[in-house]
Write a structure and sequence with these properties.
Helix content: 40-55%
Order of helices and strands: HHEEHEHEHEEEHH
Largest sheet: 5 strands, parallel
Shape: elongated
Strand order of the largest sheet: 1-5-4-2-3
Number of helices: 7
Strand content: 5-15%
Structural class: alpha/beta
């Protein structure tokens, strides 16, 4: 009898476990946002300057400007025809719908903030989510007597050949760099040390 009861308990526990797994699978919701590009692909894109655009290159017929600043700053002054999407609200349902509509229209998303650094994180996030037709506006915004002033910002250019840079760094770190080689080829000068002669003892008995 005890063995029978034990078997029944194990059977009931197994059935409940299987049911829990089935319920979990059936009620599982796929995440709304999944990265399309990994970090490697993103970094490869950033080794070029194709993603940077100046304010003079903006074409409002093919570009859609996305302002990632706060609503207060946006209302204070913004670029013509820009849409305000603050960084924390970038992935809201409403903003996702707008971004997908821009993508379906084959238009280029141009992200900007007070400077390129502020817009960098939203830019990277959208690119990794699959919005590959996207640019980063290298602009610096300021105000003069409550009027918006825009200037092109000088952005540090990335290293264009990462592999060559790594190879050169590795070569320099293993002691075979040019400086070390040039020093090793210099003939060594031998200096002979002459012993001092002992002076004769003075005086005597």
């Amino acid at each position: 009898m005890k063995e029978l009861e034990k078997v029944k308990r194990i059977s009931i526990a197994t059935i409940l476990f299987i049911l829990a797994i089935l319920i979990g699978i059936l009620t599982f919701e796929r995440p709304k946002n999944i990265f399309t590009y990994n970090t490697k692909t993103t970094l490869e894109k950033l080794t070029t300057t194709d993603y940077l655009i100046s304010i003079d290159e903006i074409d409002l017929t093919t570009n859609v400007l996305i302002d990632v600043r706060s609503q207060f700053e946006f209302e204070k002054g913004h670029l013509e025809n820009a849409i305000n999407m603050t960084s924390p609200e970038m992935l809201s349902d409403e903003n996702q719908a707008i971004l997908n509509e821009i993508k379906n229209l084959n238009k280029t998303i141009v992200i900007y903030g007070n400077n390129a650094q502020e817009a960098n994180i939203p830019f990277l996030m959208l690119f990794q989510l699959g919005f590959d037709d996207i640019k980063l506006l290298r602009v610096e915004l300021d105000y003069l007597q409550n009027k918006l002033v825009t200037n092109n910002e000088d952005v540090e250019m990335p290293i264009t050949n990462i592999k060559a840079f790594i190879d050169e760094s590795r070569k320099n770190s293993d002691g075979t760099d040019t400086l070390m080689n040039s020093q090793s080829n210099v003939p060594k000068k031998i200096i002979t040390v002459q012993k001092k002669k002992k002076r004769a003892a003075e005086g005597g008995c």
